[in-house]
Amino acid sequence: MSIEASARRGRSFLAVFLASVSALVLVAVLGAGASVAQGPRVTAVLADPIAAAGTSGSRVIFTANQPLATVSAGQVTVVPSVPFAVDTSGRSVGVRFSEPLADGARYTITVDRVSGLSGVSTSRFETVVDTPAVEVHVLERSDSDDDRIYRSDFDDDDRVTVFEHPRIEDFRQSPRGLVVSTINDQGDSDLMIVPVDGREAVEVKLPGVGRLSRLQLSDSGDRIAYTWTDPAIEGLPARDSVVYLSSTATPEAPPSRLDLGAADPRIDDFRFVQGTRSLLLVTRGKELLVADPVTGGEPTRLGQATLIDEVARDEPVAYVRTEEGPARVDLRTGDRTEPAADHPEYGRPFAAEKVVGHGILSTYLSIDDEGSLSRQALVLADDSGAERLLADVPVSDAVIQVCAAPSGRFVAVTIAPDITTNAVDDAVLAMPGDMVTRIIPLEGGASRELPGFAISWCRGPAS
Predict the structure, then answer these.
(1) Which domains can be identified in the chain, with CATH numbers?
(2) Tell me: the pLDDT tens digits for 109-142?
(3) Which of 30, 180, 229, 247 has the fewest CB atoms within 10 Å, i.e. the most exposed one?
(4) Nearest to residue 326, comparing CAs of 305, 346, 344?
(5) DSSP states of 445-461 as a string?
(6) Distance from C-alpha of 9 to C-alpha of 190, rounded to nearest angstrom
(7) If you ran DSSP here, which 8-state letter would residue 156 be given?
């Protein structure tokens, strides 16, 4: 073949190649233009129904095929209604729920008039979130057999054992499994993550040999915290009720000690603060503190308290006990108000907490003229002040703990019957041997009782 013919063939191939590339580019441009003209399309939806029913702050995230113009709250509808916030970033729009969703419910989330940055056409995004039915875990101790943690739903009376051990101290429920504190044969604490699907438990590294108490988890379930006490040497432990933190993601990592600067490191009670990385603490000297475990140093001081009943799930507010009675503390300002006042029928308020969507739940105690307990009642007051008596507990029994479900649809009351003859065990978290947890529905239906305590709704240990 001559050089001239070869050159002609090369020029012909180049012309065909350039024409093909131009056509492909034109098709791509026209396709992109058509896509923009048609408005955004959803390419993915991210949601976690289990987390949405367990904690506030969960999100549904729509991802589109093109960058989006800012979406306002007025374009979003959630059915059934629940408070939410909206944010737009790049190709995504997120709907963040301000409170936990109801158990066993279907939510429809619709975003109308969604447009790309061009604003040529709009689209409608829609998805559904089906939250799981109510299911709880409960700790049941035994004098003769192993202690156990069992699972129960509300459809039947079946109780399925998910973990057994000779001495279970306490547990909390996380997305990775149950975080369980036990006592070994030497009388020291062990900590483990127990998957609920039957896989082998994973040991969580502790600060040393000693005992932990007040086991807790952050609402997202990724951070573990507890107070730690060393064995006594010459009458005094080197570390006495100091707070340590671990991660459920890296249980093998050494735990970190909470730095409280010059404040008393001995902690009688604490809670994670929802939506932040901070902890609310009550020191041995009854000082109420807010501390950041990341930055450390001097905590914020919020006055005095004897115990923490609850940190609200939907706002930076805590309900604490004081020498004068329960108080509502704004964690941003330290301002205090009374969540409940003395009641002519029920007596004095002893403890209080917020129930999502229903108001303030107060435990009242009435003392007669002779100084004896004459009544103990649980009363729910809504935002208008209307009251509802949830339970009248006989004075022969002891109210051990009161915890509302994350969704606000149920209240769990743990009771020790016949407290004068109900012997207390020898655990670090010592409890009466006979205990029942009564579950009270707030939106209709019959109450039911489960043996044991530490129902997985409770974010703190029984006090």
Answers:
(1) 42-130 (2.60.40.1220), 134-163+396-463 (no CATH)
(2) 999 999 999 877 899 999 999 998 888 999 999 9
(3) 30
(4) 305
(5) S--EEEESB--TT-SS-
(6) 80
(7) S
